[in-house]
Write a structure and sequence with these properties.
With 489 residues, the protein is mostly beta strands. The chain contains five helices and 31 strands. Bound molecules: CU-O-CU linkage and copper (II) ion (2 copies).
């Protein structure tokens, strides 16, 4: 054991102590330290049957007859589903579906979604990545109580076509609501889509843990440290489904896991990255693996000679704390290529405006600390040295202004940074202390920060009001690795 491992291991036991119930009671009220469950025996890793054909996502039907309008009701409630044959699992789900139904709209559409909360907890719906006004974005202040409802209304501007998702955002309860099943995906389509001629498939990748009775157990102390990962990684709610790809197709992929990193590979076969969180790139990028941090999305065009490959999440060491199982390759789906139409992939997809004329700079630093308080060890996940406080403004911005944000990870673990309300462009990422210019323009709302890495991004907010920025490992966000940006008019 080297010194670093030793330090990590000894801190892990101290942290486990910090989460014991005695220390909970001693915690000052202002500090929302979560309760931790004891680890429980788990259901066998192969108990969920594998190998069935990939099912398309369910869809949220548009109840409006008017062109340019999308109107629907989305209900969050407790449901029973069967994942392991013969066993019922209680999930929290939108419209009874895990993942939640796909919402698909066109750029320019007016969207009106009535949210009905039938959960035992207050909740909100946050439209991850979408440029919606702050009051419609499911902020932690805007709770919908159990039994309550509200309507979210927004219009999606031209240029917002892309691959988004939605999930709850009540402070403190987001991790639980998501690991119980609440998350769904959202696609905004462009009127003139250069890839309109491609057949398209959707892969929502999520994580699930079941105990031996088929129940979803609570977060353990280790989950609160490293982020929760289950023994199952599901695609559209299925374990290792079979995906048939005829000819050349477009794939949209979501990392909807609470904490799992997905270093995606198609058995080493090259593919084109054509889009990121906020839509298409300027030009397809050929690659053979792609790291998707929790919260991130991608669009690919894939094309293979007839035969089979395995879509795999390759081992990725995100420097978890403590004694954790070795990372390994994780098969996600079997992919079978069959002959089919092969539309031409344009060399130019669209043009993106490179954000320039930086008028202000902001700095966000993620860190972790271990402290002794009241004779107890306490772990904290911090932004600019502070834990989240709903009543504090951390950064002040201005509508329409181009800002450059310096995102710093001053910790030994990876943390994905995410900002609400707008997309940003990565300018550079540090590698061994040197800034490396980002090779291509892309719109993103989530970017990984490796340990001790600095990433520079540029952005512009279109609405005034309060926005969140946080680590998208939900257990870290839930413990306060989150800040508030006030965008002034
Ligand atoms: Cu996907 Cu603030 O969240
Ligand atoms: Cu978000
Ligand atoms: Cu984190």
């Amino acid at each position: 054991m080297n010194r670093r491992q030793f330090l990590l291991r000894s801190s892990a036991s101290a942290i486990a102590l910090a989460f014991s119930s005695r220390s909970m009671a001693a915690m000052p009220a202002a500090h929302t330290m979560p309760t931790a469950s004891a680890p429980v025996p788990l259901m066998a890793a192969d108990a969920i049957p594998a190998g069935s054909p990939l099912a398309p996502l369910s869809r949220l039907a548009n109840r409006s007859k008017r062109i340019g309008e999308f109107r629907a009701t989305l209900e969050a409630a407790v449901h029973e589903v069967t994942l392991v044959p013969g066993i019922n699992t209680t999930v929290w789900a939108y419209q009874g579906a895990v993942p939640g139904p796909l919402i698909e709209v066109m750029e320019g559409d007016q969207v009106e979604i009535r949210f009905i909360n039938r959960l035992p907890q207050a909740s909100t719906i946050h439209w991850h990545g979408l440029p919606v006004p702050p009051a419609e974005d499911g902020n932690p202040w805007d709770l919908v109580p159990p039994g309550g409802e509200r309507v979210y209304r927004f219009t999606l501007p031209e240029g917002s076509a892309g691959t988004y998702w939605y999930h709850p955002h009540p402070h403190g309860d987001t991790p639980e609501q998501v690991y119980r099943g609440l998350a769904g995906v959202f696609i905004v389509r462009a009127r003139h889509d250069p890839l309109a001629g491609f057949a398209e498939q959707h892969l929502v990748i999520s994580d699930l843990r079941l105990d031996r009775e088929g129940r979803i157990p609570g977060n353990t102390a280790e989950d609160w440290m490293n982020g929760r990962e289950g023994q199952y990684v599901l695609v559209n709610g299925q374990r290792e489904p079979c995906i048939t790809l005829a000819g050349r197709q477009r794939l949209r992929l979501w990392n909807a896991c609470s904490a799992r990193y997905l270093r995606l590979s198609l058995g080493g076969m090259p593919f084109w990255l054509v889009g990121t969180d906020g839509g298409l790139l300027e030009a397809p990028q050929r690659m053979s693996e792609l790291l998707l941090a929790p919260g991130e999305r991608a669009e690919w065009v894939v094309d293979g000679a007839p035969g089979q490959v395995v879509l795999t999440a390759l081992a990725y060491d995100r420097q978890k704390m403590g004694e954790v199982a070795d990372e390994r390759d994780w098969p996600l789906a079997r992919v079978e290529f069959v002959p089919g139409p092969r539309p031409e992939l344009p060399s130019r997809l669209r043009s993106l405006e490179a954000l320039s004329g930086v008028a202000a700079r902001q700095r966000v630093e993620f860190s972790e600390t271990m402290s002794m308080e009241n004779g107890q060890h306490e772990m904290a996940f911090l932004v600019n040295g502070k834990a989240f406080d709903m009543n504090r403004i951390d950064l002040v911005g201005k509508v329409g202004r181009v800002e450059e944000w310096e995102l710093v990870n001053d910790s030994h673990m990876d943390h994905p940074f995410h900002l609400h309300g707008t997309q940003f462009q990565v300018i550079s990422r540090s590698e061994e202390g040197k800034d490396v210019a980002e090779p291509f323009l892309a719109w993103r709302d989530t970017v990984n920060l490796a340990p001790q890495q600095t990433v520079r991004v540029r952005l512009r907010q279109a609405f005034s009001g309060l926005r969140m920025f946080h680590c998208h490992i939900l257990e870290h966000e839930g413990q306060g690795m989150m800040g508030v940006l006030e965008v002034k008019p």
